[in-house]
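PT: before anyone asks, these are the final sequences, not the draft ones from last week. 807 residues across everything. Please model them as a single complex and drop the result in this thread when it's through.
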Amino acid sequence: MNAVGDKKEGQLVHPQKLIVWLLIASIVMVFAGLTSAHVVRKAEGNWLEFEMPSVFLVSTILIILSSVTGHLALMKANAEDFVKSTWLVIVTFLLGIGFLVTQLEAWEVLKADNVYFGGELSNPAGSFLYVFSGLHGAHIVMGLGFLLYVLKAVLSKKLEIQRRKDITEMGITFWHFLDGLWLCLYIFLIYNHEIKIDYGDRSN
Amino acid sequence: MSAVAHEHDHHHEESFVTKYLFSLDHKMIAKQFLITGLIWAFFGGGLSILFRIQLGFPNADLSWLEPLLGNWIQEDGKMDPNFYLAAVTMHGTIMVFFVLTAGLSGTFSNLLIPLQIGARDMASGLMNMLSYWFFFASGVLMMISLFLETGPASGGWVAYPPLSALTDLGEAAPGQGAGMTLWLTAMALFIVSSLLGSVNYVATVINMRTKGLTFDRLPLTIWAFFVTAIIGLLSFPVLFAAALLLIFDRNFGTSFYLSDIYVNGEALSHVGGSPILYQHLFWFLGHPEVYIVLIPALGITSEIIATNSRKPIFGYKAMIASILGIAFLSFIVWGHHMFSSGMNPFLGSVFMFLTLIIAIPSAVKAFNYITTLWKGNIIFTPAMLFSIGLVSLFVSGGVTGIALGNSALDIQLHDTYFVVAHFHLVMGAASFFGMVAGIYHWFPKMFGRMMDDRLGYVHFWLTFIGVYMVFMPMHYIGIQGFPRRYYSYSAYDTWSDYVNPETFNISMFISIAAFITFSAQAIFVFNFIYSALKGKRATQNPWNSNTLEWTTPVEGIHGNWPGEIPEVHRWPYDYSKPGAKEDFIPQTVPFSETPESNLEGEA
Ligand code: HEM
Ligand SMILES: [Cu+2]
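LR: through. Structure below.
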């Protein structure tokens, strides 16, 4: 028997799926806390202005694509075409790796641009960017782990069909969430990373 | 259903390890939380006794404590000020998180959720077990930090930067090096534990209620645990965010919270940060946290007061609504901890307004407890006494909250003993009373035996009077301007008249009251251990209660019910129903069996 069990008669929702949603809620709160901190901190001035590395756009495209393939994987799983589903999960996984690589790439660009995470030259404006990207990346790593679990399920001959569908659904739900989370962070950063008011003489 | 029952029929032999250590059974995990929480309570309380010795008797020769504290007692027989600060910090941390969060929610959510909703176990036994072991690991780290040469964290339980963000010895207190690092790591583990627990509680309550147990028939205990878990799920992640940035500031050279800090005349390299940012993040958890601590205690009290007044709880729906109201409001009042942080006065008034609104649902609860008691056939079990004590403490501590909620007053009273008095009554003592009440009441469910009543009464009266003797005087010295967390007051002219060590003074009074109250807990410890081993055997339903946990066998089995899970046919508060044969009708009794007492529409 698995840890939580399948949906039983009389239950409102599938217990494991509910747990995935609850975890999503708590992750949302972490980022809500951090983005609010970003807003509050920015309002206090002394904020470094810098260009958002354009490679973030590449990551964004990659992760959107991965969501599309992930969704297709789920559709195929639900249609019980587990062979196609397997391939789509693998593509999703690889796109996820690609996302991570481009994120690290962006860090290099930032460093080359003198935007640092820590140390004497750092400013919270830059540090926040690293934290968002890094912490989201850590969740992507979790998500990739989850995708591997999904992969195991779609490949499995032993599990019941319904169980294989459920696992796929949960994994892909989580993956979509990570995609959405990145989009929110990206849009947030585009509009918020610099102060858009003219505050006169900035020589200090 | 039968398939489920079947799963639990075949009994497999369990080893010591799977039964007592890595148990997946919610009842065992509840006991693990309880015992661990009580051990922590002993340490947390012990620390407070140590710093009360210092506060009450600043000139005393403490060399007799050297065997215990070693170098923390200086050559001249005085307590090391750094140790004093560390003790205050660890007392707060241990009590708030380890005792009143893990020890209270962990114990009673685990014990009662499956039993009162008619489930065989939690949604995920594995996550439940992990929740305990993360808590345990967190405790191990915290415990190690107590024994470090440089001492544990000493910047206060709220861990405000810049103090908490400076790592090198000498920059802040010695405990802010390794001690603070351990503190942060322990808290991170604690947050994981708490989230695992909360996720599980929510999933279980939503999904696994037995047939007929709709949300408007749930015992108020379950409502309380459910809402508490949701609050935890939404607020602990924010503490995680706060701690994460703090860790980066400490170990990776970022400047989220630090700017323009001068140590020994030299500027640190950190620029651009804001310590106020941390306060916002911390109190966004911190305020909900105080309700995470209190709401389960209120839930326990609701159940015990209704049972022992032999009356339905007054205003069941209003009780639910006020729990929900308090929970919602608890997320938007955190600013009242920061009135004196230089906050925009307009924002201050918004927070003041929202804060004062909390008084309404809180008053609804207090009122409903009192009206439940009113004209009840009250049975004074120790659990009942502690529950009534909770109501008293909740009222007297809540009233001072309303005073503090006014920003104009708070600017005077902030960080004085008045605040210490406020939150110890309303949160510390009230929740502790709720926890103890829960232990007396559900002891037969946990250990199959009864606790001794007479010892319980002595324990109650000493604790109840003791707690008031400790905290009431603190209001006065708070108004007098005594700041909290000071090592010694007699050195300052302003206060030396009040705490002149040559004469008997108010600080000594508080300390002596604290010693007595702490010692009185020995009676409880004795009662607990003795009764667990040799107490009177419990009957199945010792308090003639309506809820489902009292339909399970006394000895407590895997899967909770030997046969089918009972169905629920009514709400849990049919006590002294007019016309009924007995003064209680368990939730499992269908209306068709009680035509004599059915109200209109109940058939
Ligand atoms: C009528 C309801 C309440 C109001 C208006 C209220 C208001 C306040 C205010 C304004 C403060 C800040 C004081 C200061 O630091 O200057 C405060 C502190 C505190 N309150 Fe309350 N409170 C209420 C109920 C509660 C309850 C029910 C609890 C716990 C269950 C609680 C726990 C605390 C704690 C722990 C602190 C101090 C935290 C610290 O600085 O270490 N309060 N309260
Ligand atoms: Cu508060």
